[in-house]
Fold this sequence. Notes:
- The structure holds two protein chains of two kinds.
- Chain A is mainly alpha-helical.
- Chain A has one domain.
- Chain A has nine helices and no strands.
- In chain A, helix 4 (about 100-115) crosses helix 7.
- Chain A is globular.
- The model of chain A has no long low-confidence stretch (mean pLDDT about 90).
- Chain B is mainly α.
- Chain B has one domain (about 1-485).
- Chain B contains 19 helices and two strands.
- Chain B has a two-stranded antiparallel sheet.
- In chain B, helix 1 packs antiparallel against helix 2 (about 25-50), helix 9 (about 235-240) runs antiparallel to helix 10 and helix 11 runs antiparallel to helix 12.
- The chains are: A mainly alpha, B mainly alpha.
- At the A-B interface, helix 5, helix 7, helix 8 and helix 9 of A face helix 5, helix 6, helix 8 and helix 9 of B.
Amino acid sequence: MTQATFTGVLDLAAGAFLLAAVLIVWRRELRAMVRMLAWQGAALATIPLAVGIYQADAALIIVGVIVLLLRAVVLPLLLARAVGTEDHERRESTPLVNTTTSLLITAVLTVLAYAVTRPIIALDPSPATRAVPAAFAVILIAVFIMVSRRRALSQAVGFMMLDNGIAATAFLITSGVPLIVELGASLDVLFAVLVLGLLTGHMRRTFGDTDLDQLRELRD
Amino acid sequence: MNTLLLLPILAPLAAAAFAAAVGWRRLSAFVTVLAALSILMTAAVLGSQIGSGTRFGVGHLLRADALTVTMLIVIGTVGTLATWASVGYIKAELAHEHTDQRGANLYGVLVPIFLAAMSLAVLANNIGLMWVAIEATTVATAFLVGHRRTRAALEATWKYVVICSLGIALAFLGTVLLYFASLHAGASSGTALNIDVLLAHASQLDPNVTHLAAGLLLLGYGTKAGLVPFHTWLADAHSQSPAPVSALMSGVLLSVAFSALLRVKSIVDLALGTGFLRAGLLIVGLLTLLIAASLLVVQTDFKRMLAYSSMENMGLVAVAAAAGTKLAIAALLLHVLAHGIGKTLVFLAVGQLQAAHDSTAIRDITGVLARSRLIGGAFAVGLAVLLGLPPFAMFASELSIARALASAHLEWALGAALLLVVIAFAALVRNGSRMLLGPPDPSAPTIAVPRSVAGALVTGVTLSVALGLTAGPLTQLFRTAATMLGATP
């Protein structure tokens, strides 16, 4: 792989990664959101795979394959199973912020991401680091989704997106954290998503719904 | 000597495996108590062996120093009391059908895993591994919070998992950025996250990236420590958990998360000077105190009251860490230990009150001291510890924190903290005295005290009194930890 192809692949992956986040903000249907999340996972896995092939680093390629399996297949499947079968369950009903405003906020957050990441690019202006604002934008958008959506599952999607963004940052600026940390972190995320999936099941049985507006017994 | 460092992690894991194999029964519950005791024993042995040095294990993945020993003592002490009380607590829950055998089995497996994760968090030399362990505590405790499976318990669990995962994810981003800075400071990729390596390279870390990392780490670990702005999970989770788990979360988990911040602070202070995190800790510490004190005043639920008292104490601890002198850090560690034991006493006591009354409203409960001398007495002692009354240890620690703030020229912070602590004090006294001394209601149910809960309470009271009279060799341990954390003299 030449330097130019490598940079091209990285930029494309980072662009697809950010685009998936924007589409998740745009779409209201839970199944579509989970599908976009799987695509985002695939775009994320492209980063370690590309770096691994470019630097001929076998360990990184293996990490890339694991990331692909976990984030593009296993985790989205877990979430898809938790999406209710009833019709009204599948849509994000009456969101706190409407779609147009959400997309505008997304644009502002993306600009903010460029500002925040300036010290990182200044320290190491390599092609991979230059793509880091996209990853940071995804992190900020994910936090926005977590605070503005009312379905339990949308929050879970936001959490996974947040995690994708952090993983992308790690791959872009440091070619990934040490293997033991990567494995531990992946395991934690897997368990966290499992717990969230089980909880939505419990919630549906208890409340008959997963609208978080139902959660208001505990307050001061 | 690697085995000694692994014992506090492996012993509870073995207990969890045993509990998974045989299910919840007296034997498996006592095996867990033994595992918790072994954490305390390991801390004692390590403390006597390492002095002011540091010991590494498992290829520098683990470390033991004075801070590790201090935190293992907190985990071991509170862990032993809480798991001991669990024996009777779960028996009563089963008898009242608040849980079933499956729920009890799950409890028996998750509690020791929770202990193991906390031990790993304080033993980790790699801050990435430390993060993994702290996130693992969230996963392990999720179903403990939701133990009763009621609507309220489910709501608390959801908020707990979502808010803590969000917060702790920010801490991971901070860790990644610190790793990036460390690589560029010349550390090799395998060891760049090790605390000793980071300390050695601290002066070469890029200041701009380190600022970003430090801010994220403060927010992230602050979430798990119950500090603003992501503190909203705390009262819900602590009020819904079974009493022994509330004791563990409030008495240990918060301080374990804070010890992670102390580790981060020792590195960041070397890289950026003390100013940045001092400002950050003062802001979150004082805001936490403010929120905790105002919500304590209006509180009508006694478990939530105790949760906000924990927040108040963590706020105070954050302010003490901001002062950053040797006196302040040593006092903070004493504060954490005394608070852990005192909070365990009150949570275990109110657990029995909740079981008797099937309510957590303050107005439902009066005249406890006249109705049960043991529960009332333990509650009174625990409350006195938390209020910082002499002769208990938090009197000494709060005085030292105040002196340290004054000598660090943070008189304004001292004034603000003092005012808020006094407000919280008044609120706790008002509610506590009503519950303890109020006119006894003739129709009030009898308060059952299972033997194991009684044993844990008597031991806890004894420990609180002993710690108040003399901290003994612990004083030296806390000073060593403070020096090692780079505290200013």
